[in-house]
Amino acid sequence: RTSHGMILAEGGEKMSKSKGNVINPDSIVNTVGADTLRIHEMFMGPFDQAIAWDTNTIAGSRRFIERVWKLQDKIGKVQNDKIDILINKTIKKVTEDIEGMRFNTAISSMMIVLNELEKETQISKENYQILIQLLAPFAPHVTEEIWSILKNKKSVHESNWPECDETKLIDRNIKIVVQINGKTRGII
User: Fold this and answer.
1) What single DSSP character describes residue 3?
2) 33 and 76 in contact (C-beta within 8 Å)?
3) How far is 2 from 182, CA to CA, in rounded Å?
4) For residue 89, what are the CA distances in angstroms to 122, 180, 188?
5) 131 compared with 27, residue with greater pLDDT
6) For 43-92, what is each residue's pLDDT tens digit?
7) How far apart are CA 101 and CA 98, in angstroms?
8) What is the pTM of this model?
9) What is the 3-state secondary structure (H, E, C) of 83-109?
10) Pick from 110, 83, 85, 113: which is nearest to 98 by CA?
11) E strands, the chain, in order
């Protein structure tokens, strides 16, 4: 059993009906959707620590989901070794983070992949589907919708969890930054 941390009110004090500082999730779900609320709550900070609620940052979670949705437009027949390595590293990281209840870092890893996928002119359907499978425990409704748009017969939640290919975890090229007295002098 793992105890979760407490969600505090915006001022950092304990939420209480008598203080009138309780956040009603129904109003947030009606405004930005249940998946956005789920992503926001899990991305706020470590699961086992207390964290102050901040309504102002929920828009970032909504934008993240919208950006994942828009990636559908980039699906093509392209294979990119750099992206394959990143996807496999993300599968490994998200799997370990879910098991360790480090949901905020799992979501952060998916945000990194999203940033890289958006830079590409085309992405493979396979890599996009892997991102959707990794995101499914955090945003079940939108991932189910995307999964059906991608013409999958079963639910995304019934699909096998992606497994990382250990051979694709190794970067073939690395960059080494050369610094002298704290100033970058070159990249090898």
Assistant:
1) P
2) no
3) 43
4) 20, 31, 23
5) 131
6) 888 777 777 777 788 899 999 999 999 999 999 888 888 889 899 999 99
7) 5
8) 0.81
9) HHHHHHHHHHHHHHHHHCCCHHHHHHH
10) 110
11) 7-8, 51-52, 75-76, 123-124, 177-180, 183-187
